[in-house]
C-alpha cells in the first residue's frame, strides 16, 4: 500500500514539474510537483534509515508548502537545498549489494534515477540561488548526512581496516583536491589553463552534446560501482559508497544551472556515469585480484554474497 501510494505521488510530482517546464498552466504547477517529490524523497529516506516515513514526509510537505505559499526566496532556497541533500543521500542508501559487475552497474543507474528525481524537485521550486554556493552547500550537507548513516552501517571507524582506511583517505584527498582545484581555477586560473579547459569543454559539448563533471566521472560513480560490489563481501564497502555523493549531488544539482539545457544536463550525467562505471569496473577487478585467492579470481564477476542486506524497500537499520 505504501509503495503504491509513493509511486503515485512520484509520478504526479514528476508529471507536474515536467508539464510546467513545457509551459503548461497554472504557474504553481511546478512548485506543487516539487512539494510532492520532496515529501516522497523525505519519507523514503526516513523509511530506509529506520525512521517514521509518514511523520518526516508530512514535515517535508509542510515546510516546502510554506516556502511555496510565501514565495520567500530564503524559504524556497532552503527547500531546494534540503531536497537536493536528501535526494543525494537517499540515492546512495537506496543501493543494495552487487554480487556481479552487471548488478553494480544497475545500482549506479538506480542511484542516478533517484538523484534525477531530486533534480526535478529542485527545478520545480524555481529558486533564486547563488549557484556556486548552492553546489558547495548541498555537497557538504550530503557528505555529512551520508557519513552519519554510514558510520552506523559500516560499524564505525574501527570497522574500516587498513584497506578501508586507505580507501577513505585517498577518496577524501581526491574529493578535496578536485573541489579546491576547480575553485582556484575559477578564481585565479591563468588564461592559458582556462583557455585549454574551455577549448576541451567546447569540443566535448559540440561533439557529444554535454560535458561530464569531473567529480561524477572520476570519483562518485567509480566509488558507487566499486562500493556496492564490495558490500556483497565486506562491510567496508559502505565506506567506499560514501563517496558516491560526489556523483549523486552533482546530478541532483544539474537542472539548476541556467547556462545548460535539460538535454545538456542529462547528457552530461549520462556520460559521467558511463565513464565512471568503466573506472569502477577496473577498480573491482583490481580489488578482486589483490584480495581474493587466485583460484577465486576468475569467478570475481559473480561472487557469492557473503553479507546480504535488507531489500531496497526495507530499513537498513
Report on this model:
With about 325 residues, the protein is mostly helical. The protein has one domain. It contains 13 helices and no strands. The longest helix has 30 residues, at about 260-290.
Report a brief summary of the structure.
Helices cover 75% and strands 0% of the residues.
For the secondary structure, the number of strands is 0
Mean pLDDT: 84
N-to-C CA distance: 21 Å
Uncertain spans: 296-302
What letter string, H or E per element, gives the SSE order?
Answer: HHHHHHHHHHHHH
Any chance you could write out the topology, listing elements then pairs?
Layout: H1 2-21, H2 29-48, H3 53-70, H4 73-93, H5 101-125, H6 131-153, H7 161-188, H8 191-208, H9 214-231, H10 237-241, H11 245-253, H12 262-291, H13 294-297
Helix pairs in contact: 1-2, 1-5, 2-3, 2-4, 2-5, 3-4, 4-5, 4-6, 4-11, 5-9, 5-11, 5-12, 6-11, 9-11, 9-12
Please tag this protein with its features.
mainly alpha; 0% strand; 317 residues; 75% helix
Amino acid at each position: 500500500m505504501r509503495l503504491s501510494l509513493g509511486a503515485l505521488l512520484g509520478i504526479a510530482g514528476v508529471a507536474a514539474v515536467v508539464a510546467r517546464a513545457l509551459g503548461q498552466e497554472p504557474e504553481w504547477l511546478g512548485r506543487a510537483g516539487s512539494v510532492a517529490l520532496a515529501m516522497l524523497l523525505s519519507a523514503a529516506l526516513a523509511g530506509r534509515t529506520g525512521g517514521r516515513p509518514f511523520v518526516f514526509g508530512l514535515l517535508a510537505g509542510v515546510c516546502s508548502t510554506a516556502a511555496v505559499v510565501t514565495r520567500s526566496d530564503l524559504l524556497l532556497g532552503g527547500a531546494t537545498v534540503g531536497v537536493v541533500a536528501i535526494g543525494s543521500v537517499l540515492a546512495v542508501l537506496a543501493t543494495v549489494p552487487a554480487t556481479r559487475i552487471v548488478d553494480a552497474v544497475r545500482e549506479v543507474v538506480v542511484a542516478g534515477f533517484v538523484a534525477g528525481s531530486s533534480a526535478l524537485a529542485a527545478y520545480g521550486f524555481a529558486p533564486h540561488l547563488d549557484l556556486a554556493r548552492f553546489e558547495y552547500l548541498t555537497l557538504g550537507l550530503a557528505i555529512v548526512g551520508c557519513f552519519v548513516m554510514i558510520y552506523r552501517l559500516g560499524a564505525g571507524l574501527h570497522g574500516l581496516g587498513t584497506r578501508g582506511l586507505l580507501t577513505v583517505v585517498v577518496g577524501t584527498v581526491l574529493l578535496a583536491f578536485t573541489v579546491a582545484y576547480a575553485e582556484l581555477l575559477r578564481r585565479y586560473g591563468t588564461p592559458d589553463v582556462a583557455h585549454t579547459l574551455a577549448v576541451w569543454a567546447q569540443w566535448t559539448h559540440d561533439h557529444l552534446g554535454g560535458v561530464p563533471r569531473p567529480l561524477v566521472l572520476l570519483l562518485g560513480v567509480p566509488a558507487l560501482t566499486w562500493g556496492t560490489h564490495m558490500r556483497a563481501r565486506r562491510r567496508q564497502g559502505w565506506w567506499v559508497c560514501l563517496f558516491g555523493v560526489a556523483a549523486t549531488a552533482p546530478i541532483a544539482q544539474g537542472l539548476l544551472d541556467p547556462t545548460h539545457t535539460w538535454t545538456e544536463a542529462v547528457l552530461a550525467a549520462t556520460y559521467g556515469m558511463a565513464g565512471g562505471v568503466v573506472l569502477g569496473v577496473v577498480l573491482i577487478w583490481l580489488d578482486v585480484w589483490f584480495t581474493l585467492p587466485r583460484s577465486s579470481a576468475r569467478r570475481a564477476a559473480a561472487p557469492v554474497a557473503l553479507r546480504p542486506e535488507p531489500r531496497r524497500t526495507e530499513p537498513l537499520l
